[in-house]
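Researcher: Next entry: Queuine tRNA-ribosyltransferase (Arcobacter caeni).
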Amino acid sequence: MEFTIDATSNKARACTIKTAHSTIQTPVFMPVGTQGTVKALDANDMLELGAKIILGNTYHLYLRPGSKIVKKFGGLHGFSKFPNSFLTDSGGFQAFSLSSNSKPDENGIMFKSHIDGSRHYFTPKSVLDTQYDLNSDIMMILDDLVALPNTQERIAKSIERTTKWAKEAIEYHMEQKANGIGVHQNIFAIIQGGTDKNFRKQSAEQLCALTDFDGFAIGGLSVGEPNADMYETVEWTTQFMPQDKPRYLMGVGTPEDLIENIERGVDMFDCVMPTRNARNGTLFTTFGRLNIKKADYKEDMTPIDEACDCYTCKNFSKAYLNHLYRAKEITYFRLGSIHNIHYYLSLMKEARTAILNDNWDEFKKDFYAKRSK
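Model: Predicted structure:
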């Protein structure tokens, strides 16, 4: 991986990340392709949208179709036909979100498959082995994520385990690279600690001292805490992260969340929000959210967003999309998802331009002004 900082505007950063499969300009939003596909869209759609990196999930791909099958097709790139970069999550979040079926211990996470109830055990090494098969460009390590709020004891245990697993993971990855495995794959550690400043500082300092990591993520946020706490935690944590490596905030979030956290020095984001909201009838626009289900749009000839040049807005009216949604036509899922992802990717391009021009404050003010109309 090559990483360069192209410009800053206050704490906001415009950077370039080069992997084996694409050149990624930040700030970047990574559409979520949990099963090796962004829901309702294919590789051609993602290329048309200009996506340089999407996120796949180790937990889900391990269970189905199995990483060995993906490997036979040349990894995720050959299997999905998306030629640009993939980042794969480790499965730690799924262990958290499916907590009724999983149990962490000092060495890993035991869980039951949500598909057939079979038992499996993830370790720091095993999740990397799966990701080697997937051939993702960026591999996330196994971490111990906890819900918020939580006890001091449980958060302290989370940090202890996450650091222990990070050391095991980076040592194993360096050994594998020496043996010719995962040579072009990169590995990120995940900072934990809830919203407690001392815990976040402790986790960040422990992990960032492991200098062989290619980048660092802030995990364990957007899991139930107030937005203000999330923003404060990110602002506090980034000061302990290296300047010369990518910073990734996991699982976040709304357009407002992206803007607020870019301002706090974050480079990379992912979230299911644009596609999930599209499927449920909520579309993001320059002027805020729009509920396409409303009867108000049954005869509306205008596009979703007059300021948008996506395929959906250039070709279809709110009335047509309202009809498709009400008729439960699958085409709506594709058209709605195209628009929402286009909106997110375009917002990141606009944010980058503002940083390059060193007018971040003006850009942010304009962003909120349009949404308050």
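Model: Note for the record: The radius of gyration is 20 Å.
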